[in-house]
Amino acid sequence: MSFRFTRNYVPDNDLFDLVRRLFEASTSQMPSPRDVLEFHVHGGNAITKSVLAAIPLSVSEDSSRNTSKIIRYAEPGEFTRRAFYNNRLDLIQIEALGDSLSAETEQQRRIAVKGSSGMLSECYESWRQQLLLARGELEALIDFSEDQQFETTPTQQVQSVVSQVEQLLHQVQDSIQNASRGELLRNGISIALLGAPNAGKSSLLNRIVGREAAIVSTEEGTTRDIIDVGVDLGGFYCKFGDLAGLRNGSEKNALPVTEIEKEGIKRAKERALAADVVIVVLSFESNPVRPEYGVHHIPINGEVARTLKHLDLKKQKVVYVVNKSDRLDSLEKANILPSKARDHLTSFDLPPSDIPITAISCREAPGGIEELLSSLISLFERMTSTSGYDSTSWEHSLGTSQRQKQLLEDCLQSLKLFLAQVGGNQDEQDETSLDVVLAAESLRSAADCLARIMGRIESGSVEEVLGVVFEK
């Protein structure tokens, strides 16, 4: 294909020398099967604006067509949309592309790359083909059972399909579980700093983020509202929330709890119950009853203990740190912390810690902060590790988006419905009680969910999905 590019379209002849023109014929690697002209220009807004202004003038003067119909700016996501319609990318890869563009941490980039590799599409397509074959076996019973003699009974054929569906069901469940873990990487891990006033929550937040993100004061109730700070820890995007200190005003020598502080405490409890990880900040304090014991006392606020008992330990992780370790020498920290912490968790019937209990000091450097962060990163790795028959081959499922996860859950429900329709015990089931038509319909619904994940849906419905996806 030839392409003529005349020099007289440039309003400023000097501009022509600043522009390097590159013409590429359409190839299979390009997003759309069209010829493309790329401009590689020198940096600077003025140069870019001049080139953009000159492009419409490249249309020959004898052209009777409107310039705006020949040359125009691309609509949001137009090139990606063309790539989809020309089978260069499927919907899963396009969503992964959007995740790549918005990735802020290494872990976010990695799961986006996994999603764009095509492995997820191959996996879903393999499942869809399995369902189509299983559905074909059932529909053969519907269409030919009266005309043809099968070597097996209808019940035996259904049992064969049931075995396939049960195996597929477990794989879909694993994929959904991994998708939830992938959401932690994509959206960030929510971490709540929970504790009594003056335990050192704000100081710990400042040490973690490396700046004065929260006000630190010896006055109780300094933190009234939630202070959210995002930070990259070992490639994991973490959203730390410094919460108001929990108290009820009945503590010895405590000031009354104001209405503003009550609202802050209420929000702190709500945030703790919604967090992925709750870091409980305790501290070494003097024993008010036996002051001769020194600072070997680790008090646990009653409000903190009650809040911890309401956590959902199936979904949430709990971490305990004991601040103000600078009040102890190294021998005391080694001997006192483990026994004291265990005794307190047992006596208050509190959830166990998901990492070793760490003694820290927000005044000293490093003060145990590096040890705490290292333990947290190890915890994050466990929280986002994949599950399945082969965990390595399941890593790509971490890139599953919320839209894909919802369709997988719909697919799972259709598979469960199929198993319920064919009955739990095929050996005892009467052949006449098998409703093969309804069972086949459930498999069709499950297969359609997998097709919709990849964008293989009717044109009337596809626009509802693509409009949001492509604009990313």
The largest sheet, given as strand count, sense and whether it forms a barrel, is:
6 strands, mixed
Series of H and E elements: HEEHHHHHHHEHEEHEHEHEHHHH
Instruction: Give unreliable regions as ranges.
Output: 1-28, 425-433, 458-462
Radius of gyration in whole Å, from Cα? 31 Å
Find the count of extended strands (DSSP E, 2+ residues): 8
* Structure annotation, total helices: 16
| Widest sheet, order of strands | 4-5-3-6-7-8
Instruction: Classify the beta-strand content into a percent band.
Output: 5-15%
Mean pLDDT: 75
Percentage of residues assigned to helices: 40-55%
Strand pairing plus helix content: what structural class? alpha/beta
Molecular structure report:
- This protein is 48% helix and 10% strand.
- The protein is α/β, with parallel strands linked by helices.
- A hairpin with a 2-residue loop joins β4 and β5.
- It is flat and about 80 Å long.
- The N terminus is likely disordered.
Structure, briefly:
This protein has 16 helices and eight strands.
Chain-wise SSE layout:
Elements: H1 13-18, E1 19-24, E2 36-41, H2 45-54, H3 67-70, H4 78-85, H5 91-102, H6 106-116, H7 119-144, H8 154-187, E3 189-195, H9 201-209, E4 227-233, E5 236-242, H10 259-274, E6 277-283, H11 302-308, E7 317-323, H12 330-347, E8 358-359, H13 369-383, H14 402-422, H15 436-453, H16 459-470
Parallel strand pairs: 3-5, 3-6, 6-7, 7-8
Antiparallel strand pairs: 1-2, 4-5
